[in-house]
């Protein structure tokens, strides 16, 4: 049996060989995180994930959440595991120990989350939302508010949410109508209805803290008039004790395609006129607060989608090794030839190597984004901070938008490897394919991610972050050119990087011309080709290290792994990059049909 | 958590846990080329599950009574991981006997080394797994008790600490028996004793700062020659035979199939 959830050898490779994450421990802030400690963190996260969280995945999908009389019941199996998760103090790994975090590098936290989130991400959403809400309190709360809320949230005793979407304000947040009126005691009366609230109501914690976006009476229209509030399910007194039930009512939960274990709630605040909230940060600065949290939230959604792909690939790989069906193609005419495991069939191998290459490249990308966050924290000067912040900002829409698109394809491909069995509930693939689908939508649809890349990130700081990123890529190409076996993929990657720079210049310029609509109709393809080039960079980087290790004489058990790294970039450069080059030609040509076609001509 | 000086409890109990690192039960075990050992290169290693019960029970007793928990193992450098895991669960100190002369000599030699090591640690209680799931010999725990000349109770599923003694519930065929023993004593664990905790993140962070001593036989005044053995030699290892395919009973009707099944169970399988 190969591994489940995530390939430990690959995680170790990315942490210790590709990114040498232990070097962070040279800085006082991360001095505790030596290789041994990092390995133990990943081992124990895996232990909890495999033994306790993974067994809830299928059961919670079947059972789902139940709504009755304003209350939501989560799948029964979640209660015990939530207790274990809390006891282990896994919720706020990278946060300040003063407030109940562990001060861990984000890159290492991502490796632990590879297992924890990968074991059942519908369950882990209760943790993820709490972490995000806690970070809002940590970043914008007063000392008093931090004292009242933060520790309880970072330890999971209370959970958190994010109340943003309204029926008429989804991607267009500025349209929201939830209203806030200041009271004499400094609190605010909140009134409005919010939908699609993940973890909005449940029975796992004694209190739920809702950060809420609302408009203070008389504030400007649009995003400039939005403020952020803390609205607790039970009022929290200044000494931290619980007060009366606040007027926040769950009016229903959604019947969803996937992530059945997580309650997706509609909440009405102030329906009886008694909903109180505390202002978090400054008036009318709510959207700014949202933007500050966006990178973390989008990286997490990228990871959620990614873990579905990692799971799917390993299941498919196991299945392909064990499932015996059909003769080897070379022995088709021999009637006595035995049936063979389907991993011997060329088309199955095509699917497996496709999944392998993307899964590896995406793991490197996500951990790299985490590493950028860590490098910001230990940067020596403002230039260094700006460099890593810029690269992280450019990569975030790729981590969310590109990764989830590819993750969905991988889950679908893995299901294909199972044949008909993949489509039935006895096997885990159909659930993964359903669960992964939402990651392309929430936390900013992938269309929004693509617009973020083209409209904001590409031209940010006169293009310096993009140039920094391309510079990092070129360094790896230069290293690869020194290695005989990597000549072809290095050349193909270099060509793709150079072409991407040209495409970026052109689509960026077009976006600021009268042809802005045409440009944005190619935003998504542009995000996808950027992601492909990032994949090539990461896979080439891996292969450079692998080739060096093989050259020096790797241990027997590592040889296959390193050879596999060289095959991944070989495949990607030979089979994927030509498609990417073609897509880039299409972007350069910028066919205007999608914009020019009249709405009537769409038919229907 | 050790109570602070002011909160020191009356009945501090110092506990030594005997721990062995074994291949994870999820690992694929393959016979090595020599035919008498297993391939270890790609194995994942864990704390012997019965020893995990021992660590957990020791921690619970310490939490209730005060005292200390020392984890003791015989093994190679690799065993440090297992000891660190026990420290991350909450044990206070680790001791690893890492000496080539102490390895591969069989259960009694291991017990002798462990007993010699335990003698250097102040203890009221020694807790061991009933057996290690790799060699399944059931010998080390009781043998250590013999070498230490202290009472031994095996297969324990519940403990109650009394004043200067311990009451142990142990499994016997078809039931349980309750026995009491004065301290110091040794008991071995049985499934059902407790549910071992997971190492917490703060526990992991603390673990590497906890003392972990490495010792050799010379530290106990034992010389390699004194450890005879092994008393048994493995001649050959082979994986269990693969299960044959099932058999479908043929028949025209349910009654006919049932009759054929009864006949097969009676005459071929001889189970009815």
Topology:
The complex is a heterodimer of chains A (about 600) and B (about 270).
Chain A: H1 8-18, H2 35-53, H3 55-63, E1 66-68, E2 71-73, H4 78-88, H5 106-119, H6 121-140, H7 143-154, E3 158-160, E4 179-182, E5 188-198, E6 207-216, E7 226-232, E8 234-236, E9 242-245, E10 248-253, E11 264-269, E12 276-279, H8 286-322, E13 324-327, E14 339-341, H9 346-377, H10 382-417, H11 429-437, H12 446-457, H13 464-481, H14 487-511, H15 516-521, H16 523-552, H17 556-589, H18 593-596
Parallel strand pairs in A: 3-6, 4-6
Antiparallel strand pairs in A: 1-2, 4-5, 5-11, 5-12, 6-7, 7-12, 8-9, 10-11, 13-14
Helix pairs in contact in A: 1-9, 2-5, 5-6, 5-8, 5-9, 6-7, 6-8, 8-9, 8-10, 8-11, 9-10, 9-16, 9-17, 10-11, 10-12, 10-13, 10-16, 12-16, 13-14, 13-16, 14-16, 14-17, 16-17
Chain B: E1 13-18, E2 21-23, E3 45-47, H1 49-65, E4 67-74, H2 79-89, E5 93-97, H3 107-119, E6 125-129, H4 140-148, E7 152-161, E8 165-172, E9 175-182, E10 185-189, H5 201-207, E11 212-215, H6 254-268
Parallel strand pairs in B: 1-4, 1-6, 4-5, 5-11, 6-10, 7-10
Antiparallel strand pairs in B: 2-3, 7-8, 8-9
Helix pairs in contact in B: 2-5, 3-4
